[in-house]
Design goal:
Length: about 400
């Protein structure tokens, strides 16, 4: 038995955390975000409104929210490794289903399943990664950042594949892209299914420690606003680039820049993430995220859009890492699963409402630029809210 204050030592923590992140690579990087790459072609081919297009990411977020709520129960029942692998498998099945049908409700079901699977893999993987990172306190923030770079790998890979596949096969070939992404995901997750996943995290049987919502209500509100704001940008930005005249190379470059930014995140924000001062780190990163989301409102030149992608991407991946760092700084390990679940639920409600509300605004006002205005405003308000969060004292 390991004493609670002496975490187990993992021989290759970085490699293990990167392997765990493959669930997030597929569930979020490809399963959720790659939808934005095929949304314009699906909308044209299947004659959807922007509200209908937004609904596909809303239903995905509903699945994610439900999965986050059920994650701890699932982990207790099947174990950490099975939760991560089972969730990833559900994501693979849902990707294949997206390639098989154009039926709106069948696609909605596939997006729902993708959300459920992504949450199981992400919550279980994130909690395990936090435990593994804690085994190297001097490198904990950096190691944990590696897990959150997982979605960036999926965004980069899908960004290099989807736009050129659509260009090659022509209008109406969205289903070919889904097959390509399914095959890519199967290949990418092989290490996850072959590597032995350690399950000796100290808090594995925990969760009994108290977690009060009231002291972190403003922080939860900030994370809710992040969920609502970022998803609008990530759902409709490729359509915005296309409407501005950007072809396959421009779309691929834009999306790949967001994905590449994930690899800079662990180094770029290392000192900010080490700030143990309430919500300050989250506020700084969220403010940067808002700036990135606002830039396309000011112009649509290639350089301007590229700057937006980089600024948004560098901050986007770090916000989630900052909330986990906040939990680590303010709560004992036994409370981490409950605290992370509360954060995930708040975020999940935000990203559930974001796409369909912004889609409805776009339908009503007739321009995607309004969607970006709303996205940037939500992120900016979230940054101000996070700034108001103070450190949480021991219960």
């Amino acid at each position: 038995m390991h004493a609670p204050d002496h975490p187990p030592r993992y021989p290759h923590p970085a490699r293990l955390i990167l392997t765990l992140s493959l669930g997030a690579t597929v569930g979020l990087g490809i399963g959720r975000f790659a939808y934005a790459l095929v949304l314009p072609d699906m909308r044209d081919s299947l004659h959807w409104s922007y509200s209908a297009a937004g609904f596909m990411n809303t239903i995905n977020a509903v699945g994610y929210l439900a999965g986050a709520l059920l994650a701890s129960r699932l982990i207790k029942r099947v174990g950490w490794a099975a939760a991560i692998r089972g969730g990833t498998l559900a994501c693979l099945v849902s990707l294949a289903l997206c390639a098989l049908t154009g039926n709106f409700w069948a696609l909605s079901l596939a997006r729902l399943v993708a959300g459920l699977g992504a949450a199981a893999a992400f919550v279980a993987g994130g909690a395990l990664a936090a435990g593994i990172a804690q085994s190297r306190p001097e490198r904990a923030n950096f190691l944990l950042s590696l897990f959150y770079a997982g979605p960036g790998i999926g965004i980069l890979a899908s960004g290099l594949i989807a736009p050129f596949t659509l260009q090659w096969f022509g209008p109406g070939s969205w289903w070919v892209v889904w097959w390509a992404l399914t095959l890519l995901s199967v290949v990418m997750t092989i290490p996850l299914f072959l590597t032995r996943i350690e399950t000796t995290a100290n808090f594995a049987a925990g969760g009994g420690a108290s977690f009060a919502i009231l002291p972190v209500l403003i922080y939860l509100a900030a994370y809710f606003l992040f969920g609502a704001g970022y998803i609008a940008y990530m759902t409709f930005m490729i359509a915005y680039v296309r409407d501005a005249g950007g072809g396959a190379p421009a779309q691929a470059a834009f999306w790949s820049l967001i994905g590449l930014s994930a690899f800079v995140t662990p180094w770029f924000w290392r000192r900010v993430l080490a700030l143990d001062r309430g919500g300050l780190a989250t506020a700084v990163i969220l403010g940067t995220n808002a700036l990135g989301a606002a830039l396309p409102i000011l112009g649509t030149s290639t350089a301007w859009l590229a700057t937006s992608a980089i600024v948004f991407g560098v901050a986007f991946f770090a916000v989630v890492g900052s909330t986990t760092a906040f939990v680590r700084f303010n709560y004992p390990p036994a409370a981490w699963p409950t605290a992370i679940a509360a954060m995930t639920i708040s975020f999940g409600v935000g990203q559930t409402l974001g796409p369909i509300v912004v889609g409805a605004i776009t339908d009503a006002l007739g321009s995607l630029s309004y969607a970006l205005n709303v996205s940037a405003a939500l992120l900016a308000i979230g940054a101000v809210a996070a700034l108001c969060q103070r450190k949480v004292g021991p219960a």
